[in-house]
Amino acid sequence: MALIEQILFPNTFGMELVYSFVIIFCSLIVYFSTKKMYDISKHPGIRYFRISFLFFALAYFFKSFISFLLVFSGFRGLIEFLSVFPGVTTVFLFMYTSTMAIFYLLYSIVWKKTAGEKFLIPLVHALVLVISFGSLLIRSAWVIILLQILLFSFIAIYNYASYRKLSQKKKTGSIHVIYLFLFLFWMLNLSDILIANFSPFFEFLISLVSIGIFLIILYKVTKNVGLN
Amino acid sequence: MVKRDKLEIIKDILKIIKENHGHMKMTPLLRKSNLSSKRFADYKTDLLDREMIFETEDKKKGRQILITPKGMEFLEKYRAIVHFVEEFDL
């Protein structure tokens, strides 16, 4: 199996680079193509949706930067990587941006229920910054992963409820299914960084499905707003 | 009667002005918008801030509300905005 994987996927970093580039590209197009729509409508949901994809672009940028540093600086594992300043800074930024991306996507669909609570967003920013910093201090990414799993679980429950509600009204609700897959594959993506010697074959599969999910979202966005 | 959301109310106000040749006096606009005076005042301030409408004072016609090109653009893109908001459940 290992030999087959080496033949099929000889350059994991090259694959990671292409994969990250496609997702960053999709996320930035989503962000910039919805600018006009937000400027006209000032709709809070569109605002949070856009910010979410900006954070996704940043998170994938830092993720590929971590891979780049790990490959080209000769570090043996994440612990050694975290002992140098560029390593610790990039991981910190990755933890912060990825959690905020998930939070903003969740908030884009639930903001109506919390409208008027002005301090919620600054509070979440501060909380995620503190947790990301704390995770690095105790040299454990599990706190931030638990936070992301918590957000993910909330989204899963909310999305499932919304999907059922929309199904009853005979509306599609397909975006809720897409969001569920997006978060599921995001969590699998994280395991790629955290688990040493992660199978290149599964890494490839996760990358492929993640790209597919982002392309579907991009298609749905551009179908509505065009590319202007 | 289904409660209108903010986007729909904005669309209704702008549509009323547009269908009245792009300008309208305050009192008939308030009446046709089906809003309370307080809510209408809030929406008026919001639309003025967003530069979708502007106010003029004329000796003959009195105080009038006019729709701006930005307001017209909102009306043109209203359907696309609503479709987008619904599609992504925003």
- Give the C-level CATH assignment of chain B: Mainly Alpha
Rg from Cα of chain A: 18 Å
Biggest beta sheet summary of chain A: none
CATH fold descriptor of chain B: Arc Repressor Mutant, subunit A
Overview of this structure, please?
The complex is a heterodimer of chains A (228) and B (90). In chain A, 84% of the residues lie in helices and 0% in strands. Chain A has one domain (11-225). In chain A, helix 6 runs antiparallel to helix 7 (120-137). Chain A has ten helices and no strands. With 228 residues, chain A is an all-alpha fold. Mean pLDDT of chain A is 80; it is low at 3-9. With 90 residues, chain B is an alpha+beta fold. The model of chain B has no long low-confidence stretch (mean pLDDT 89). The A-B interface holds A 34, 37, 40-43, 45-46, 48-49, 108-109, 162, 173, 175-176, 220-221, 224-225 and B 7, 50, 70, 73-74, 77, 80-81, 83-85, 87-90.
